[in-house]
Amino acid sequence: MREQSAYGQGSSFAGMAAPGDSISSMFWNPAAVTMVTGMTVEGNITGVFPRSELDVDPARSTLTRLGISGNGGNVGETGVVPAGYFAMPVNDQLYLGVSLNAPYGFSTTSQTPWVGMFSHLDADATSVNVTPVVGYKFNDMISVAVGMQIEYFDVSIETALAPIASPPRQRLNGDSTDVGFVAGVTLTPFDGTTIGIGYRSMVKHSLEGSQTFDVPLRTPPLGTIPAGSYPISADVSLPDTLSIGVRQRINDVFTVMAGMEWANWSRIQTVPFAGSPARTNLALDFQDGWYFSLGGEYKYDPEWTFRAGLGYEIAPTTDEHRSMRLPDADRVWASIGASYNWTKQLSIDAGYSHLFVQDAPVDETTAGFRYAGTAEGSADIFSLGIRYKFGG
Predict the structure, then answer these.
(1) Which CATH superfamily is domain 6-389 in?
(2) Nearest 5 degrees, angle CA 357-CA 359-CA 364?
């Protein structure tokens, strides 16, 4: 979930690892904690409105032979992403801060009956990440910071066990709390030029949960598995990420920004569920994700600043393993935004993005039932933030 900043939303997050006026840059680069001149707090709230539907290929979808032809409808569920930040100087060189984010999350639901019900009915992932950081400013040119991630992660998946209008379900769920770290550096080699590099480590989650069958499950190699709930566990390493940002002031009113992000999603291939009586696993086979962005910021007057930006995202999903559980694909971000300085202490940020998602093939087989077609999607994202600087 890149949507961690209303300030950054307005420029498609271009250059967010290179701190500007918003301490929300701490999500990309913890060294942004050293930018404050006094105690500063910031809160952001973002609404994500996705749309994704499957254009079904009936010739390749098994359940169409049984008279089931539904496409599941719009599987995308509206989401709300909160984010909060705090930063303060201890002295001229030492800084402390903490951020609260939801870095991973999605929710999809398919309308039954539909051709892919054995692969997807409902899926949901939620995370909460608290990251305290310590920053040190060597001089006006170099600042560094390190911190610890404390992350809660919860995931649930539901699929059908029979091809009927209101099917009995198989449910997988689990959660865990685990830790990682962050590190970053900010460089100001010239007046008006800021370069930032930030790293968020992987967080290896050891999920504990259950697998539940509403009805007995008949599997020829294993026999009949009675209905009920069974304890399971799974290990999954959420990716480490690297962010690089550049901000270049052109003149007193105009600044350009550019950014690049890399996410090591290829850490996640097949996730087995230990203890599963059905020997269930989740084949994801992700590739690395990439994001490139370019934006501009125009300071209209002391109160108003306007920004815009474009981004291009290479999704970690592959054509061979894409599912309507997560119908992700490469996309273009187009964004606009503004900041208003209500007073010297209080600022308000707003941003809007539209995502043009590339049409992508879906072809998945689960329990011998295949469904196929083309996923078509888009998203609208609205973000609002408030920032307050104590002491003028």
Answers:
(1) Outer membrane protein transport protein (OMPP1/FadL/TodX) (2.40.160.60)
(2) 115
Is the whole model's pTM more than 0.85, yes or no? yes
Torsion angle (degrees, nearest 10) of CA 299, 301, 304, 308: -20
The CA distance from 118 to 158, in Å, is 9
Name residue 272's amino acid.
P
Q: How far apart are CA 321 and CA 299, in angstroms?
A: 45
Buried-state track 141-170, b at ≥16 Cβ within 10 A, e below 16: eebbbebebebebbbbbbbbbebeeebebb
**Span 208-254, pLDDT tens digits:** 999 999 999 888 777 888 999 999 999 999 999 999 999 999 999 99
Please state the domain extents for the chain. Answer: 6-389
Average of per-residue pLDDT across 125-138: 97
Which tokens go with 337?
A: 């935004």
3-state secondary structure of 62: helix
The DSSP letter of residue 70 is -
Determine the number of helices (DSSP H) and then strands (DSSP E) in the chain. Answer: 1, 21
pLDDT at 52 over 70: yes
Out of 248-252, 316-320, 372-376, which region has the weakest mean confidence (pLDDT)?
316-320
